[in-house]
Amino acid sequence: MKPPRVYAIDGVVPVVDPSAYVHPSAVLIGDVIVGPGCYVGPCASLRGDFGRLILMAGVNVQDTCVIHSFPDHDTVINENGHIGHGAVLHCCTIGRNALVGMNAVVMDNAVVGENAFVAACSFVKAGMQVPPATLVAGTPAKVVRPLTEQEMAWKVQGTGIYQNLTRRCLATMVETDALAAVETDRKRIVMPDIVPLSEQKQRS
Strand pairing partners for 33? Predict the structure, then answer.
């Protein structure tokens, strides 16, 4: 697979570890560092044209996420961070193994603690310190409760699925032409057994 196309600015070139996968439609500009085993999804925008953006090992940044920072500041996603579809991170720190839900916003100088969850569509205001292993939700986000062992285990499994997706993309994703009709006995994507957390809770 060809290396991702990235954009230098002021002579600063993004860095992408060879074991990471960056979708061709994602945009990486300037001072962006993508670590080993990371996944950066379609139409994600990582603009390192002001401050530095760092994705540590095993991070996934899903489709249409936006990441930016202020000059002389870093936005950091620590190891195994999980950033859901459409989230916005600005000049903040996401702790190891933390999850930021779909369409959530994390603002300047906020810190999301290790193993914490930011619920979908939440707004983490500037400077908020999200305690480790807690769920925060709302606009503005507030601590709801400690996370359960089941929830934290589900997150680890989900992040593992994205780390496997990185390997699948590097091995098999190619640009191609669409078919004109659905094939007889069309195959399905075969995935490990992971279900939405709400379904998992109903089963237990």
Answer: 15, 54
